[in-house]
Batch of 2 targets.
Target 1
Amino acid sequence: MKKPPLLSLNRVSKTFGGLVAVNDLNLEVSQGYIFGLIGPNGAGKTTVFNLITGVYPCAHGSIRLEDSELTILKPYRIARLGISRTFQTIRLFPNMTTWEHVLIGQNFLSRPRLGGILPLQRAEEFTLREQAQEALKVLGLWEMKERRAVTLPYGSQRKVEIARALAARPKLLLLDEPTAGMNAREKEDVLNALAKIHDFGVTILVIEHDMRVVMGLCDHIFVLNFGQKIAEGTPSEIRKNEEVLEAYLGQEE
């Protein structure tokens, strides 16, 4: 029997005034894989992320994480169900260290519960700190943990955002252009880190404009154009899809 998808979008639409940003979109993200979401500028990719995470309400359709309907939930409740994300533009706190940023990502996991037993709470806090350390080490940030995050090189700042999202122990990690603005070495470091994150059992959905990154990283790719899905398949299938080549990949030449 086929396992149900981890994330499913069914006939999802979103409009801004008279502009249709996402139109009748169907997607299924299976657990344990890395999925890519690509398309030209303005295709609706970030809008899809904002719909999944509750930043925007859906005009129509259903978004489900396993058995939970997301379209009726606030963003913080969606995060608690197991979806973490990064953003297209870096969002760091100016006076916080790298370490503090990662701890912030765990905030909703570590809040004390009424009637809690103190030794159990301390054990949970110790576990969370270990996981925060692991997130920093996976992203190559451990030696920078005491530095203010905004003083780090651009590529490292992006990795801080990924580490913060990872520290929340997500089932599904949404990455919006994680390698944007990076040089070749920084991109390679991020790709290696994402491979490790995937090995931990985290499902990843990534928006990315660098086709070499997408084709080398993803197991399955969705292609949007004008808010509609025009293709999906493996990287080799997407490379040969004429509609994709015309709408997006062909612009790289």
Target 2
Amino acid sequence: MIGYCTNVHAGDTIDEVVANLHNFSSAVQHQVGKQIEIGLWLPDNSLSEQTSDNLKECLDTLNLRVRSLNGFPFGNFHSNIVGRTVYEPTWCEEDRLTYTQKLATILSDLLPKNKSGSISTLPLGWGEGWDGDKRAAQMLMQCVDFLEELEQTSGQLIHLDIEPEPGCRLQTARNLAEFIQIQFDDDERIRRYIRVCHDTCHAAVMRENPRKSIDTYAQVGLSIGKVQLSSAVDVNFDSLGQEEKVVATEALRSVAEPRYLHQTTIVRDGVMKFYNNLPDAPLDQPVGHWRVHFHVPIHNESFGPLGTTRHDLLQSLLCLPDDDDTQWEVETYTWDVMPLEFQENELINSIASEINWANEQLHQVNFDE
């Protein structure tokens, strides 16, 4: 079952979260025509002793189901400028552990009976200047202890799914696999409660081959706990005529907005260069094959005059696990910073179209098999 992540909706309090479920999530489910699973984003400010009760009442009223929480953004994900603050607090800090434990407790209350749950989380922290592997591993071990105890008392298995992202300490499958193996060796308990959140946009920006990524995780015993279906911006300037280059360059400038980081890779002559943010890349004289971390609707093969990495996403569907213990969701959170001329539809219809398209592709993959 494919759902979507509610981090696309602004909301810093529990009242705002509940209002979003009424105003958006329920309408998306109606548009899809069948029950979907909501990947809830709950900022730290929305968490209290009443959060579970408020959410259960709302979810029951709307016939919505939750098996996944997005525990990556800690604070206001829709402030004017988010930038690198989305990677704070890091996994070296107590606040990150406490926040994640609160989320796990809430999720255990919301899960359907006999169903596992997923909490996706950041890949430790931003990469530049990082020296916190040991401390982060200690904090993650404490989180595993908590999740094990929670399973014993509630009967609900909740796994923490680390999400590699460009520019972060863990930005590729290999980075994550090596971290787990070095810090935790072959500990099977770690593999039960720590898994992978595979974001198809992030992997595409880093030019990762889907099959090789899955194999890399398997080699160290890591499972895929969550799949975030998303596409990046893609444009090969070396294949464009002069007029097309001008149009594509202006389109890229229009998505270089200030709220989020838009990590960019450029490949030319077999060499990949990485830029922390799109405005840092050489937009004055663009050459080579560009990929930009800007989530675009997955059912679109193009984004205005720009391409997308939908092909990479489709390749991923051939090798990612399709079982009841892996959560799947669409995560196109950039809607309200997306240039208006590139928005093909209003938000609710766009999300529903993404979910329906993804379901169709998965059905085709399973049919072909």
